[in-house]
Structures are given as C-alpha cells and as structure tokens.
Give the backbone structure.
Amino acid sequence: NSERDDISFRNTLTNPIEHNDIVSIATSLEKQSGEKIKESLQQLLFLISNCLPAPEGQPIQGSETVIDKVTNLFCRQNDAEIHALCLSILLNINSKSQPQDRESHICILCLTLIEQIQSRNKTISECASNALISAMKKMKEFKQFLVQRGIFLRKATEILLRQEQSSYTLATSQNEHSQSAVLDILLILTSYNKLKWNREETNELINVIQIMSGDEQEEKDEETMQGKANILLPLLRMKLSSDGSIDLVEENERLKLQLHQSEEQRINVENDKRISEEQSRMKDDQIRKAEEELKNKEFQQAMSKSNVRNVQKKDVESVHLVATHAKE
C-alpha cells in the first residue's frame, strides 16, 4: 500500500494537472484516516498550487466541492498538521479565484473558524484560533472581512458577553479558552492601522470588555483575560477616535449616495435607450419615405412614358387619316 501511495504521489507530481483529479482527491478525504489524509492533502495542495488561475469571469472548476470537503475535514480533525494543510489549501484556492468568488470563500472560512473557536474542546479551539490568525497575516482581505463586515466584531461581543452573563461554573470555565482566543485575535486586529472599524459595533465591544477588565488602574497579569481586556480597551477607543472608524450615519449617507448614483445611471441608460430607439424609428421613417418617393417617381415616369406613346399613336393615326383623305 505504501509503495502504491508513493507511486500515486509521484504521478501527481509528473502528470498534467486535471481539475477532475483535484475534485476526486477532495471527495475521497471523508473516507480516509490517519497518514493517508495528510498525504491526500499534500497532493491536493500541490495540484492547486500549480494549477493555472481560472479564466477571467469564471470560477475554478470544482472549487466549491473542494472548499466544502476541506472545511468539513478541518472541523472533524484535531491534528494541527491537518489543520495547517487545510488552511493552506483554502488560501491557495482563494488566491487563484476571481474577485467575485473570493469573498464567498473568505466568508465560508471565516465562519467555520469562528465556529470552531467556540468549541469546548480546547485543542480544536486553539487550532482554529491559530488558523484564523495565520489567515489574517497572509491575506489583507481576511482582516478587512473580519472587521469591516462586522462578522467577527459581533461574534466577539456575543462570546465575551456570554462570559459576563454566566456565573463561573464548570461550563463557563470550559469556555474560557474561547474568550481568551477572541481577545488575542482582537489585540492583533487593533495593531493594523488601515482597517475601518464600525463605530456602533466597536462601542458595544468596548462596553463588554470594560466590564471584563474591572478597575483599569489596577495592575493585572497580561496573560489573564482581565489583563488582555485592560490592554485592549485603549486600543479600541483609539480606533473610534481615529479616521479608521466608520460612523453608521456616514455609512448610511454613503450608501444613499451610491443608491442615488445607481438610480441616476439607470435613468441615463433608459434615456439613452429611448433616444436610440427614437433615432432608429426616425431612420426607418426616412427610409420608408425615400422608398415611397422612389415608387412615386417610378410611377410618374411610367405614366409619362405611357402618355408619350399615346400622343405618338394619335399623331400617327392623324397623319394616316390625312393621307387617306388626300387620296380620295
């Protein structure tokens, strides 16, 4: 078996890359286990890394199947190496996709990782947190999606609020690793200067973190959740006071302006279409009139020729009549 697998992998490296091979390997992942999964993921990563990007305007063939199978595998496994391979595959697919497909890929990956971070299994939660941080560092679009779309900010508020609303029971302590991971991710996100933070969602997050931090003047261990919350508070407040924050009123005005501009463009297109149709009708009318004039002219010419023939005929008859009388 091992020898066959080695031959299979060598064939993968030497044969032309087929999209069917990519889909076939991805589909087989759910039936595999142990080292075979890692080998298949390595083959998959190699194929995707070396295949050409999709033609403009078209998705990569089978990309949705690969994303679905690899994401499901990521959720089922606890192995850090498997998680790293899955993440590399998903990032490679995204980098070779068309812009209109990238956002849906990022959304799937983002939501999957956020869901896994909330796992009660500490190993799964930590792996998902590390994967999300790795994706943030490798893709600027991922950071933008987390903050500017507000998905992570809303979820972070929900996860941290869950901690504050609960008593410190066993169930709560089991979830502390999730809240700690959320704080770590937020600390990294605040280190990026060009992200735009939604004002309302950031304010809600600050309110929850403020309760977690307790007395801000009191010195706390930076590795504890209180310590992380204490460090995070001023950083989030800076985001609100900087130009990087998004005011909802401003955002609404911007959207209204976009809508107004889109409506104007639609009206202009309709006007242009109507003018074009009117010009086309006028041209058709001109052609029809020209054809009618030509027919009238041809008819008049035909009538004129007929009249000339009739006159000539009468002249001949008159001459003949005169000649006949002369003979008599």
